Automatic annotation (TrEMBL):
Cofactor: L-ascorbate
Organism classification: Eukaryota, Metazoa, Ecdysozoa, Arthropoda, Hexapoda
PROSITE patterns: FE2OG_OXY
Main location, first listed in the record: endoplasmic reticulum
GO cellular component: endoplasmic reticulum lumen
Gene Ontology molecular functions: iron ion binding; L-ascorbic acid binding; procollagen-proline 4-dioxygenase activity
Protein localization: Endoplasmic reticulum lumen
Protein name: procollagen-proline 4-dioxygenase
Domain of life of the organism encoding this protein: Eukaryota
Keywords in alphabetical order: Coiled coil, Dioxygenase, Endoplasmic reticulum, Glycoprotein, Iron, Metal-binding, Oxidoreductase, Signal, Vitamin C
Source organism: Drosophila madeirensis
Coiled coil regions in record: 46-73
EC numbers on record: 1.14.11.2
């Protein structure tokens, strides 16, 4: 039987060991780094399945060779079985085959351990490799609908692997679309369930087996989903499709068709789509959230008048380095982007340094004053003291050189990676007025934010400021900078910002948060409060 050569087996065992060491992380969908780990898992599983197929193929080919030889004997005997059997050699061979060869064939089948070996290997791999959890499956399903909604993607295009008119990947099967629709149904996201079930049935109907009874049975079952949701039109379309193919066999659907036609004619609105409404005060229904999505799509942007006085210039380095390439993105509050601040080698170094330590990103919880994971922020991150590497030291020096701020009072550098539809909904980096600081935290509020973009992003993933309104496209090596507080120390509510969902690609950033303490030399506190200009954005809706 087929045996994997020793060097290949050693390589596979090493890969399994590496994946086992990494498998302690409980979540994968929220970063592309985690998804790469799952991809490596599938490589191992694919190799194991290929080994099994190779083994049973060799066994089958050996048996087929025996079958072919016996059939040749039978074909030669067909002209005259009597003459064939009168030959003593032929007679002996027939008896010999039935006496011993067929027992050998049976023993060969009984002794074939390839199936048991494969199942045993798979059981061992399942214990040692990384597999997605239910949370990963739920998260990936929600991410697809988030992309669909934020960027107003057509479901048919999305299922075909098209994102905003560009073909990026393999098309989804009808089964993929159905499982996604079914899961969204279980999550009570009925508005997104409908188009995915509709796409699934359309793809099923296009298959070569789309008109077979088993396929029609499946379509008939999906009619029930649409009926329960109150989606009478799609339910009726499916019923008409099934009846057009098998009118006699499915006469029981005639009554269903009549009922659906009456409901549509009478304009009856019933079912889960109509009884399940968003909760009052749901942020995702707010004007602010719609503005954020419009900024992500590029539909809402600063007016030409607001941009007229913005300039690109060379900014002199305080420390005597080469001047910065500074681009003014917004005047008040000032938002600037500096280009070519981090090299490609440094960006890759920081990504690789973060991968082994990366964990689900958290947010400040007002109720407990602790950091917790949240659905409105899907990314993974790792923190580093600036003194850890020469590269992180340089990042700190760049921000200090640009702003003049004292980086001794900056939080640790946070490197983050965004996965499937990875995003961070609109938020302020500064802490609210009622924020409870830990006893050992005497550095004050977050005065300023700087974001290093460590990768380009093919589509989506921009930094959106809904109130400015401004969208900053990730550009590898660049640095985005703004102040979170007014000179009076009050929150500047205009700086609310968000990470738009990543549509295609991998987004890596490094966050820098600089606290208030000891910054009065560079940013002295105004004697009079000047926060009224931003106060209307505190509770926008």
């Amino acid at each position: 039987m087929f045996q994997m050569n020793s060097s290949a087996r050693i390589l596979q065992l090493l890969l399994v060991l590496v994946l086992q060491l990494l498998a302690c992380r409980a979540e994968f969908y929220s970063s592309t780094s985690g998804l790469e780990q799952l991809f490596r898992t599938e490589i191992v599983l694919l190799d194991e399945l290929q080994n099994y197929v190779d083994e049973i193929t060799q066994h089958a080919e050996a048996l087929q060779s025996e079958i072919d030889a016996i059939r040749v004997e039978h074909l030669s005997a067909m002209d005259s079985i009597g003459s064939y059997l009168n030959n003593p050699v032929n007679a002996f061979r027939l008896i010999k085959r039935l006496h011993s060869d067929w027992e050998t064939f049976e023993s060969s089948v009984k002794g074939d351990t390839s199936r048991a070996d494969y199942l045993e290997a798979m059981a061992e791999l399942r214990e040692n490799l990384s597999y997605p959890s239910q949370d990963d499956f739920v998260g990936s399903a929600i991410a697809l609908t988030r992309l669909q909604q934020t960027y107003q993607l057509d479901v048919a295009e999305l299922a075909s692997g098209m994102l905003n008119g560009v073909k990026y990947g393999t098309a989804m099967s009808w089964q993929d679309c159905f499982v996604l629709g079914q899961h969204l149904y279980a999550l009570r996201d009925y508005n997104h369930t409908v188009p995915w079930l509709q796409q699934s049935m359309q793809l099923l109907g296009e298959q070569s087996y789309g008109e077979e009874s088993a396929s029609l049975d499946f379509m008939e079952a999906v009619v029930g989903y649409h009926q329960q949701m109150g989606d009478h039109e799609n339910a009726l379309n499916l019923v008409n499709h099934v009846l057009a193919i098998e009118p006699e066999q499915r006469r029981h659907l005639d009554e269903t068709r009549t009922q659906l036609e009456d409901l549509i004619t009478d304009g009856v609105k019933q079912g889960l789509l109509h009884t399940t409404a968003r909760r009052p005060g749901d942020y995702h229904s707010s004007r602010e959230f719609r503005m954020y999505e419009q900024v992500c799509r590029g539909e809402l942007a600063p007016s030409p008048a607001a941009q007229r006085h913005l300039r690109c210039r060379l900014q002199r380095s305080l420390f005597g380095y080469a001047p910065f390439k500074l681009e003014e993105l917004h005047a008040d509050p000032p938002v600037v982007q500096l280009h070519d601040m981090v090299s490609q080698r440094e960006s890759l170094f920081l990504q690789n340094a973060a991968r082994p330590r990366i964990q689900r990103s958290t947010v400040y919880n007002q109720a407990s004053s602790d950091a917790t994971a949240a659905a409105f922020r899907t990314s993974q991150g790792a923190s580093f003291n600036y003194s850890r590497y020469r590269t992180t030291q340089r990042l700190s020096q760049h921000v200090a050189d640009l702003s003049g701020l004292d980086m001794d009072y900056a939080e640790n550098l946070q490197i983050a990676n965004y996965g499937i539809g990875g995003h961070y909904e609109p938020h302020w980096d500064s802490f609210p007025e009622h924020h409870v600081y830990h006893e050992d935290d005497r550095h004050g509020n977050r005065l300023a934010t700087a974001i290093y973009y460590l990768s380009d992003v093919e589509a989506g993933g921009g930094t959106a400021f809904p109130f400015l309104p401004l969208l900053v496209t990730p550009e590898r090596g660049s640095l985005l900078f703004w102040y979170n507080l007014h000179p009076s120390g009050d929150q500047d509510y205009r700086t609310k910002h968000a990470a738009c969902p990543v549509l295609q690609g991998s987004k890596w950033i490094a966050n820098v948060w600089i606290r208030e303490r000891n910054q009065d030399r560079v940013r002295p506190c105004d004697l009079q409060r000047n926060h009224l200009i931003s106060l209307r954005f505190k509770n926008f809706d």
